[in-house]
Amino acid sequence: MPLAPNRQQLDIAAERAKCTFDPSQLTPLFYGGEEKMKRLKKIEALVDSEPVFNRDDRYFLGRTERFKRALPMAKRYVELRNEHSLTPEESAYMKVYIDDYIPIHLHESMFLPVLRAQASEEQLKVWGPLAENYHYIGCYAQTELGHGSALGRLETTATFDVERDQWIINSPTQSSAKFWIGTLGKIANHAIVQAKLIINNKDYGAHPFLVPLRSLKDHTPLPGVVIKDQGPKQGAVSMDNGYARFNNVRIPRENMLMRFSQVSREGVYSKPIHPKLAYGGMTAVRTTLINHSALSMARAVTIATRYCAVRRQGTVDIKTDLETQVLDYPSVQSRILPLLSHSFATIFSGIWMTDMYAQYNADISKGDTSLLKDVHVYSSGLKSYCTKLGADGIEEARRCLGGHGFSLFSGMIDFHRQFLATVTYEGENALLTQQVSRYLLKLYKDVLRNPNMHLSPPSKYILSLFHENLFVHQKCEARSIRDLYRPEIVLAAFQHRAARLILELARAEKAGASWSDLNLECMRLSKAHVQYIMIENFHNGLEKHFNCHANPTVEQQNLLAAIRSVYDLHVFYTMETELSEFLEDGYFSPEQAAWVRQGFKNSLKAVRPNAVGFADCFGFTDSLLNSALGSWDGRAYERMAEMTEKEPLNGEPMTDKNGVVWGYEEYLKPLIYGKAGPYKARGDSKL
Amino acid sequence: MPLAPNRQQLDIAAERAKCTFDPSQLTPLFYGGEEKMKRLKKIEALVDSEPVFNRDDRYFLGRTERFKRALPMAKRYVELRNEHSLTPEESAYMKVYIDDYIPIHLHESMFLPVLRAQASEEQLKVWGPLAENYHYIGCYAQTELGHGSALGRLETTATFDVERDQWIINSPTQSSAKFWIGTLGKIANHAIVQAKLIINNKDYGAHPFLVPLRSLKDHTPLPGVVIKDQGPKQGAVSMDNGYARFNNVRIPRENMLMRFSQVSREGVYSKPIHPKLAYGGMTAVRTTLINHSALSMARAVTIATRYCAVRRQGTVDIKTDLETQVLDYPSVQSRILPLLSHSFATIFSGIWMTDMYAQYNADISKGDTSLLKDVHVYSSGLKSYCTKLGADGIEEARRCLGGHGFSLFSGMIDFHRQFLATVTYEGENALLTQQVSRYLLKLYKDVLRNPNMHLSPPSKYILSLFHENLFVHQKCEARSIRDLYRPEIVLAAFQHRAARLILELARAEKAGASWSDLNLECMRLSKAHVQYIMIENFHNGLEKHFNCHANPTVEQQNLLAAIRSVYDLHVFYTMETELSEFLEDGYFSPEQAAWVRQGFKNSLKAVRPNAVGFADCFGFTDSLLNSALGSWDGRAYERMAEMTEKEPLNGEPMTDKNGVVWGYEEYLKPLIYGKAGPYKARGDSKL
């Protein structure tokens, strides 16, 4: 006979019963559509069926153990990829779902894309198959100890020796050592090394070279190459990010990647025709980071929402003698439910960005580069904003879990540690805001010269600055709190704010401030612009995907209403967080500000009944969540206890069969038996 | 011949040369005075001289290894305490400076204080010496799987058996298992267990009992006691937080801690006279957490400031061909220097709170409990605010370090993980804000009844609400940005804001909102009130400690000016962060808001030249910082490379003498040699 469900199971079942929509209707949104979801769910099942990927003891393993576990995972991953002829999309997802940053990860996500983008057709014919089949295992070596993303400041040199038709790769200083290179430390046998190309003492700037690191025969490091793992990190525990120093290592001239620049046998250098085309890779990665942010936030929301629905603390209901579900406290709602709304906002902007990037790629193949700037700017701005939303929001959600949020069993910590890297890599978040601001400032100056110029939709609002005297007297037209639910009022407010910040930036620049003195203004403006397009994208996506039926069924209407409540929450949360920016030039009145605060509270109430439904809609498996607190069935306390069973401190050799801990005889018994001498604190203060 | 200093060493020396004050003048502020500093510096030297406390390989160790390392540390700690007859203050600091949460930590910081507070004099005579000399090693077992701080909801029972004059300790459910109990999992042989006291089926609520857990002879768990380590956590890696379930464990009646309540041989229960006196312990811990927050922020500031002074990226100076020190970018300053100001603000409030607590204890011994409420409220409010400042601020500072901030070698991660617990324990931060708000609301209602009532200085401003019609028309009197540097203008603004939020809370309550519906208002009010007293305390402390000379020397004037710049930064940062709250009722005009933003930028510029001086002033040793990036001498890049030497992946058995990694034959060679089969992605989308 099955056990009767416990209190927590009853609670979570009650939450599901009161949900006003079918969560499974929303899942494809987060998987990129119905068809793709079906395939990716099969990948999930495949991974879950392989013992090598089992996550049961992951939280107990130290770094060395995680690395040792990752090697068989890497091998099995390649075997499965080959066996099932996985598409690149599927194999990429398999790595995502394995949910450990295994040390070959960057071979396919960095080395191969750069090789394909930068090697000539001839080179690719030779190197491509070798790399695709893991004969070459590669890494991408750009960052150095002293410099990260600034290609112009790299110190590694590649000097041409015209006599022997070779490049001499060298690390002249300690700070020139390659550092942070994933897959380099222990695994890769080849690296694409970014190095200053030097011919006859002339420096042509950084260029990519294919440099063999380890013997293909026995994996020993090649002469002149000093390689090490670079030590423990916040996340990427299983990854061998590495350090490499080159001591005049010689490679053939043909190992320079020659799609864009070439060097002839005689040492004649040819420039690339479109230098900017060489940088497409970062834009692609930033675009994926937007979606990655959405899903990471959703993962935290799933755990936090489910646990806070079954966790009861505080005020007691006299009738039932039950305490209150913590999810019913506004202090908890206000820290978890906005993250839910950010997941939705971010996924819609991720879709928008992915579409734009696809369009850009299609255009480029026809020689049209007009979208280059937009793709660069929006991927930068969204990456900067969304990764910060995620990094901060996941931690805030963790803090809502009480003490148990501090346990790795919560499932909130391991993946967050890994996620924290995203605020830094592929363009540091604060730096990226300068790109966005510079672009907007440029558009503003163009508009002043030509008020009829064409602007793409997300920057059209800049036209309003042409009539500056009219602009500065704009006021928000909301006459009641209801007006703040109208998209045109909301979008106008966000447009006004962003436009005002452009104006202020322009004025400060005109007044003689240097660009680097305007950092803070750039950060503020970039955030304002990105928040605006996030809301615009959320609104458009909602209309396109969920308000698209001529005669909607009741189910469709309920679903639309539910998502709209999340949209409203996103709007009110963002407005409240940034309230001063709507107030400080008088655009909002004090009364309107009060409506915003009230609107935020109302939105929390509106989303609350469906919270567990939304947590379910993301489609995470229990296996991936690996969480005692956030699993589907709500059995949080039992799972917390069950997961302690595998703690190594509880088994041999750390605890013997009588239950006595390692080290008792040597370290504890002397204390207990009084061998550490008597204690008498000094009365004075002399030491 | 010594090596010439490298670029980074030159940079940090130049920073020190331009500092306008002597940093060592400030160090005693953070050590609790000159005399105490001298003693504590000796403790630091003592710890640094003992190999068992060496931190060189700490970042490489997994949890089991950290625990194994912690046992000899614990033993040596007790030996040193005894050998040097350390005072309780000194031995507490020794544990702080060891900087690892060793598994006996809570014996002295929780078990002993509770024993002393709750055991009767008779009981203490017996148990005190046994516990002080580590014959009894104890833990404090309050939290259960299902409940934390709410004593009233604990499920563990202590049922009196009058026949046998014994208590029967029992855990009736899974959620009643004790959980999170530090020192319990493997080490303690005694616990003070909080359990519902039951006599003749009558429940008298939670009371403390001394329960033996393990045999004093051989450390085996006693019959009926199931104990385990509870598994891995975000921090407290070396601590054996544990799980315990009691299966009708019998202890003598006298093992109830009987200072406040008693049960007689016949089973007659006597109530405590002053029930609230039993809760002094949490207040003491919260008070220490304020100082702990200040020092933790200071530690992050030290590392971040030093590294950002030697790290150069971006804009190049044409004359020197040097890039800009990243500390010169406002985007970096705005994220590190406010944390510096928070460290100062927090240490001054920590001193204020410590003094108040000492006064309270002195009063109590004379039977005067009038400070009870203030001590409780201010320790709660400050703990809530300052631990959040620290938890968020340290992470933000870490993100300013570029990629290297993600390495454990940064020295920013291990201690931050531990610090993150403080936002939850000793009262969850969001919950604590309710205590503060409830108190202020009560005072407001008292004022309405009696406008001449006595209020302690930090709440005197509430009197202004008596004339509500005057209050609501208050405006900030600043007529230029210079006025915002005047303390009376600043304090008036913070007082007005806090008072307004009290008024709004009172109105909302009057309008019928339930208390738990007012969570968000409580959080906002508590923060406003605490920010006000932090600024007041900073200002008063600055005057008292640094503006106290009749004829100040130039050095004293420079020191005062330097600290004042940090005070201004704290004020402007806080005002800017909370700008909407000064704007939304019209107290600030748009023009005044613009001055605040400008004032913040000005303050960053004013503090910047002394930034490294301030980083130095906290007095951290390199040994404690354990940071490649933040050590005194600025040799960041060399240290990053040097620290990789000890990475276990780089030595045997993980890498053999030929430089080949563990697992190559089994997992990598098959891939490189083509044994994983050929790869051909499917053209279709079938899986």
Automatic annotation (TrEMBL), chains A, B:
Binding locations of FAD: T143, G182
KW Flavoprotein (keyword) present: yes
Major subcellular site: other
Key word Ribonucleoprotein present: no
Active site: E426 (proton acceptor)
Catalytic activity: a 2,3-saturated acyl-CoA + O2 = a (2E)-enoyl-CoA + H2O2
Keywords associated with the record: FAD, Fatty acid metabolism, Flavoprotein, Lipid metabolism, Oxidoreductase, Peroxisome
Cellular component terms per the entry's GO annotation: peroxisome
GO molecular function, one term: fatty acid binding
Domain Acyl-coenzyme A oxidase N-terminal per the UniProt entry, residue ranges: 22-137
Coiled coil (residue ranges): none
Domain Acyl-CoA oxidase C-terminal: 487-672
Pfam family, one: ACOX_C_alpha1
Residue ranges annotated for the Acyl-CoA oxidase C-alpha1 domain, each copy included: 279-441
Known cofactor(s): FAD
Subcellular location: Peroxisome
Family: Belongs to the acyl-CoA oxidase family.
Protein name: Acyl-coenzyme A oxidase
